[in-house]
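Hi L., both proteins are below.
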Amino acid sequence: MTKTSTEVDIDIEALNEEYASLNPIQRLEKVFSDFDHEDILVTSSFGTTSGILMSMVSKAAPGHPIHFIDTTFCFKKTIEYKQTLTEILGLNIVHILPDIEDNTKAREQSLWETDTDACCHLNKVKPFEPYKMDKKIWVSGLLMNQTPFRANLNIFEQRGEMIKMHPNIDTSAQQFDMYLADNGIPAHPMIAEGFDSVGCTHCTLKGKGRSGRWSGKSKTECGIHL
């Protein structure tokens, strides 16, 4: 039976057990069958690992909105990659922009140099908050092999009043590459340049895994997934 946003008592442990034996595309097909589509929020940064989730969502729920937070500090090649995947997969993109005053403050003060947490909050976390309202399931493409924090995540996690779903959480790097090749999905162009992970221009360097993100700082997450 389809669950609606009014049914707030959902057993996370039971969900994880029920979905564990399924592959990622089966998990997505099932969540879009088990829950009202209007209750499901899908996000993508269109970074280096976004191709697999975008392809699978386009198959499981064609036309479902994909929310993209444009901090205005994205690499040009990330924006081009978003457009490439949009054209190939027929994606329905919802663009989220930060408040003009907040964004201007960050830009004029070079806030990423003095307070990375504040910069992420103003340009990513804060503008995203309204889009989470009235949603029950939040689907994102986190992988457990990316960071110690992500290594401990399950398919489903409770995040405040929402349930976070990571359908590809246990996808290996080899499986990821095979999926892209088998389905004709291009890789993010910056991977070939030595960027395993890509975020904003000011806080991203070349590096393996997420070592190039906020290099030299203890920070490993922008904040929207915590």
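That was the first. Here is the second:
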Amino acid sequence: MSNDNLYNEPNNESKLKMFLKKKNIVISVQRYLIDALGIMAQGLFASLLIGTILNTMGKKFGITFLSETVWPICSQMTGAAIGVSVAYGLKAPPLVLFASTITGTAGNALGGPAGAFCAALLGAEFGKLVSKETKIDIIVTPAVTIIIGVLVGTAVGPAIGAFMTATGEFIMYATTLRPFLMGILVSVVVGIVLTLPISSAALCMMLSLSGIAGGAATAGCCAHMVGFAFLSFKENGWGGIAAQGLGTSMLQMPNLVRNPKCWIPAVIVSAITGPMATIVFQMENSPMGSGMGTSGLVGIIETITTMGGGIKMWLGILLLYIIIPAVLTPIIGKIMRKIGWIKDGDLQLDLV
């Protein structure tokens, strides 16, 4: 073989890269912790979270069909929904996508949402590797997907679930011991996570974050969502209020990459409302509502469901989740505009 052929023929490493590219397998933080984790949240929303809302409505208004029929099915299908959403986020072919209902279910049963995520992710990636590589693809592809996914769910699901639960319990315990400092930390971190292209809802669900730590997390989410909505009112008007206040502050991520200083007002407000939530109003929330904020009003609905009502709760919702972020964030933003840290157009969204 000539030297020219040696240089022209791809080596084993190049062949592997070409094969992975052909299978659309990208081993990266972007693909796994941003794309897949972000889309996993939609699986949670479309099953457990919407089921919880319908269950609450059913109980409040006496609609037994919602609370006794729809809710149990939504709860039971959470793992399957996570599995499909993760496989979809990984751009899996149909047979892998459909088989992921099994891997997600297995992972969820053994390790909760975190277990479902890991089982579905690895099952889907291995399923993609063998997809359309044999003449009996209809057997091999789903079989590999299911076997790998269930093995992962069985082997690491309980450990992952236990670790995430223990971490969440530690955060909640620490918040009860140091409500001021932990109120700031939880509120700021979860608010930032909500705005980043990853899922705060999935994170809080994996951690089973509830109690006053859940209330601080909700305060942080609202500080970012409502805060950015009103901070950028000059650029985006009422459309921006709806898109960010009821949708997500993640829409601002491209602008924050260009000018990270735009993040400062929301972070400051979250550091204020977090300890107010833990100390003054003692706000509480469920794991499903903790990472949602005002998105679809889910965080507020879950707060009401968790706390059950009362003047203190309603004052906390109005002040911490809506009024303070809506008023204080633009004030801080105005100061930053005057000193040139934020310029006109820095927060413009493409809402068309």
